[in-house]
Amino acid sequence: MSLQPRPWGFVGCFTAMASPCELLMQVDNKHIARQMLTLAYDEAQRIEQKFSRFIEGNIVWHMNHAQGKGLLIDPETVQLLQFAQQCYALSDKAFDISAGSLMVLWRFDGHHQMPHQSDIDAALRHMGFNRISLTNNILTMPAGMSVDFGGIGKEYAVDRTAQLLAQRWPQHSVLVNFGGDIACPITHKDGWQVGIENPHKLDNAAALLTIRQGALATSGNTRRYIDVAGKRYGHIINPQTGYPVEQAPLSVTVLAPNCVMAGMLATMSMLQGAQAETFLQQQGVDFTVFRG
Predict the structure, then answer these.
(1) What is the 3-state secondary structure (H, E, C) of the chain?
(2) Structural contact between residues 87 and 268, judged by C-beta atoms closer than 8 angstroms
(3) CB neighbour class for 180 (10 Å; exposed up to 12, middle 13-18, buried from 19)
(4) Residue 43 pLDDT more than 70?
(5) Contacts of 282 (CB under 8 A, 6+ apart)
(6) Would the pTM count as exceeding 0.85?
(7) Which of 98, 128, 239, 267 is the most exposed place for a label (fewest CB within 10 A)?
(8) How far is residue 9's CA from residue 261's CA, in Å, rounded to a whole number?
(9) Residue 243 pLDDT > 90, yes or no?
(10) What is the average pLDDT score of the chain?
(11) Signed CA dihedral, 63, 114, 271, 128: sign only
């Protein structure tokens, strides 16, 4: 963690969830700023350790290795699953966290290779959130199914951190930024200046937004994609076909009351492909879309 003074307060930085994380704090007391930064770091680490599918022995690991047996889960995980179910229903089954077996096949780490069709077909047979049962905190998934909270986990971490900071220090405005997913829980009189990354020129802001209160989230293919035979495949996968969404924007940024909602709408719009802008207009939210 690092903490640096600014004319308006302090900025704190750390890394979590494979993302650069930043906390802007309108506070003139370094001790309080350090406490705020520590709280944000601890909460981000807690959520990553609990909900990352890459960490052996956590609740997600147990869910994915239950092999069809019922598993008692805690209220926080129930809440996240219920939200995932809403995403699944609202997106007409396109936003599906049970697509974990499919996510494993598509690697966006520099290996420019596509999965075999037979592997995609096998993964599709182990998907479908509607096949998950949740009764009295007992979760039952079909054997072979694998869930991945990656599509909502970071946004949830942003909202949780912002909520905790606002509860403990309601007199100080803060901006929580975890890898470009942002929340400002307490009104900032002058507003925080937030840059939207230009997908055509990474690390440069294409636009500046002023946020006084609320949240924004970005979904896109600017950093995670593969090129195969001259065709670009982004990391937003259509769980109904098993392939990356066709004609998806390079990136979508959505403003909403909280980060989870902003992230849900941004991802759902990416899943709409060519109809992303129409979908967002129907939701009545402010947004920015970049296309190739």
Answers:
(1) CEEEEECCEEEEEEEECCEEEEEEECCCCHHHHHHHHHHHHHHHHHHHHHHCCCCCCCHHHHHHCCCCCCEECCHHHHHHHHHHHHHHHHCCCCCCCCEHHHHHHCCCCCCCCCCCHHHHHHHHCCCCHHHCEEECCEEECCCCCECCHHHCHHHHHHHHHHHHHHHHCCCCCEEEEECCEEEECCCCCCCEEEEEECCCCCCCEEEEEEECCEEEEEEECCCCEEEECCEEEECCEECCCCEECCCCCCEEEEEECCHHHHHHHHHHHHHCHHHHHHHHHHHCCCEEEECC
(2) yes
(3) buried
(4) yes
(5) none
(6) yes
(7) 128
(8) 29
(9) no
(10) 89
(11) negative
Pull the structure tokens for residue 118: 């037979």
Could you tell me the two tokens for 11? Answer: 């900025």
Q: Identify the residue whose tokens are 């077909």.
A: 121
